[in-house]
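Milestone 3.1: sequence recovery, worked example.
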């Protein structure tokens, strides 16, 4: 089997799981992990943007990953995002992730200061060196990180044999084509912008990692299968429905992730808590929005053929 096959498919971003006091709930982490196993997704992407990683401590992120790995029991691919805004903490998380046996680690570039490309490369390579037996995925999300992965920097990073690909969340679909061409045949590129999933697949993405997948994994699994079968028109119909659902998820006063967590309560009976400040909690008609989104997802799932 192709050693990269385990990364090709639908990989939801894992959500932060809290108890009623806002502390990490390992019970909820376990339940969410088992939920994804039941949905038969390829894997999960832990401690990334959807996991509210920038609002969590190093120890909390270790606690989450440990609970995920215990619950997963090797039944799915696990990619651990380990980036912090300093090298020391990132290296610590990378070494910890490797000790647990994750399939890959991932990292955004450092945020706030605009670093030259050689400094970004040095940061990523230091992280990779701390987990020398583990695959490394670059996370390109320039609209939030403030630094864009260039073709030149990616080619430089590919000199590190552990760098297997890119989670590309930039909006131009052409970036996927650029990274596929620059990375070569043994490179994996994930579509990271949920609203353009089928566009990313059409231009060469091997699969996807996304923040709304967890609310509606059935729809992304269906789109992926349809695109693999060449049924583009059917996939497009689902993509339009997904994009309407995403618009609904983003229409509340509270955080989109809070609304998604409420959708999981409604659709799956999962209670994984709220969001962490400064993300805004749900209030007012946010609960009606979540109920509407849940209904939209149910209707779309019932229409899959």
């Amino acid at each position: 089997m192709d050693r990269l096959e385990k990364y090709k498919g639908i990989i939801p971003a894992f959500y932060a799981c809290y108890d009623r006091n806002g502390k990490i709930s390992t019970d909820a982490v376990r339940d969410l992990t088992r939920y994804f196993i039941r949905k038969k997704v390829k894997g999960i992407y832990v401690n990334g943007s959807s996991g509210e990683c920038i609002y969590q401590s190093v120890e909390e992120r270790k606690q989450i990953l440990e609970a995920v790995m215990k619950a997963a029991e090797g039944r799915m691919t696990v990619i651990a995002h380990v980036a912090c805004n300093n090298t020391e903490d990132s290296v610590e998380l990378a070494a910890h992730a490797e000790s647990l046996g994750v399939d890959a680690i991932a990292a955004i570039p450092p945020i706030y200061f605009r670093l030259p490309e050689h400094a970004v490369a040095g940061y990523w390579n230091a992280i990779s060196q701390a987990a020398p037996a583990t695959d490394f995925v670059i996370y390109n999300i320039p609209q939030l990180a403030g630094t864009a992965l260039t073709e030149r920097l990616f080619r430089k990073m590919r000199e590190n044999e552990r760098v297997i690909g890119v989670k590309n969340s930039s909006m131009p679909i052409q970036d996927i084509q650029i990274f596929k061409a620059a990375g070569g045949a043994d490179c994996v590129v994930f579509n990271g912008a949920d609203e353009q999933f089928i566009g990313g697949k059409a231009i060469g993405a091997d699969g996807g990692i996304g923040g709304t997948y967890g609310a509606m994994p059935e729809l992304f699994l269906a789109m992926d299968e349809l695109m693999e079968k060449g049924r583009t028109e059917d996939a497009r119909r689902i993509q339009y429905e997904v994009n309407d659902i995403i618009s609904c998820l983003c229409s509340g006063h509270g955080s989109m992730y809070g609304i998604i967590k409420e959708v999981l309560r409604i659709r799956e009976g999962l209670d994984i808590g709220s969001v962490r400040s400064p993300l805004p909690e749900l209030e007012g008609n946010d609960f009606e929005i979540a109920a509407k989104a849940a209904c939209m997802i149910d209707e779309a799932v019932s229409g899959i053929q």
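Strands lie at 10-12, 43-46, 77-81, 104-107, 135-140, 163-168, 188-191, 207-210. The radius of gyration is 18 Å.
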